[in-house]
Amino acid sequence: MPAPLLTQASNNDSNRSAGRSTSLPPIYDKETLHGLLGNLTRALAELNVDAATEPESEAGSSARQPSREQTMAALKQVEQPVKQCAKGQGGTAVILVKVAGKTGAVQSVSVDGVEGAVGLCIAREVYRAKFPTFSQPVFTVRYPLVL
Known about the structure:
The protein is an alpha+beta fold. Helices cover 34% and strands 17% of the residues. The protein is elongated, with a radius of gyration of 22 Å.
């Protein structure tokens, strides 16, 4: 069930007591809500997560792909070493990770937003991430990380 739209409170209760309906202005207009939904949809697509599909839960079967929680947990394992690679450099590293389904091992890493030795160090650390196995041949995730 979708969350109810938040509305601003009104101090004028006379319209309600007189039997007239009152329309309170929403905090977000339709265009803003549409934009927020679009941003959420794009973020889920970047994580390669199908919001309508639940991982399989039968004993002995693998999920089609890691859940968002499993993906975040795997990436959190390497977050501190990745930040140490930056050696105080600010900015955001956008990391594209491809993971093999049969093994859960990282197959490839590309790093945008940083260059040279820092980018190579980040890629080396991300290769150490361990994901659960899954049935899809390859899972790709784009992960922006503030350094």
